[in-house]
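Protein Record: Sequence and Backbone Structure Tokens
======================================================
Tokens: labelled as protein backbone structure tokens, with as many entries as the chain has residues.
Task: work out the structure tokens from the sequence, keeping to the layout shown below.
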Amino acid sequence: MNGKNEQKGNRFVVETLSGFNIEGLSIGGQETSIIFPQLKLCFDSGRCTQRCVYADTMCLTHTHMDHIGGLGMYIASRNLLSLPPPTILVPESKIEAISNFIDALRVLDDSDLPHEMIPFAPSAETCYSMKNKNYKIKAFETVHPIASQGYVILSTKQKLKDKYLSLKGSEIKALKDDGVEITDTVDVPEIMFTGDTTMDFLHSSPQEVIQEGLKSRLVCLECTFVNDDVSPADAKRFGHTHVRDIAENADRFRECENILLIHFSARYTREEIREGLRNQLAESHAWLYAKITPMLAGYD
């Protein structure tokens, strides 16, 4: 299990996890907002942590209050700081409800709350290209008591065509100088974010997006329960994941580089979380345990 994390006040920072800095909080039932400052991207608003305000794009996984309670503050704070109106990707089936929510806040706040809200549905073909970034976003279905979805962030890169892989650098340069197209444009999965879900999301659709996501450099995976206080069956009934569910599906995570576990139950202490992960994974799935970093900001 990785330990490359620290708490700085109200922020959580992972300095070197798959090359991404990560900020925010995720406490089950209280608030979840995970920010990737290098991409100016965040997942869910939580109560609107300070740093999520600087994310130009927000991906909402579902509409439980611990995930969208700070949405109005996020929009209003960006406006107050003269930042551009944010882009918010919203589960398509909830677009009307969230729009009504923001309209009510406009009346209460007597302000415009400028933003761009995009209804976004899981699809292998549909993607959102991030503004001023060489990244695109796809969605996949997750399994929770209300409509929910996860996201995969892909970077667009140039890859040398297979037929030129055996050539020397000078030969490749000569081809390039002659105007030969020597590369293909490829999408590389960088981040998979599940949001709240049972592990049944692995069998959801579109499978193409889920398979891409599981090859990401970083998988952000919920793990609400870590010991026998709540059984895996009860965790599933609540629409959440137990650490044993992750262990049972360990092989699905062989191709990812790192795993950030989030959304632990507020009932736990930091040491209880560490102990639960250690007891369930350290011996039986040592290779998986070595990939894992638990998000512990906010826990005593």
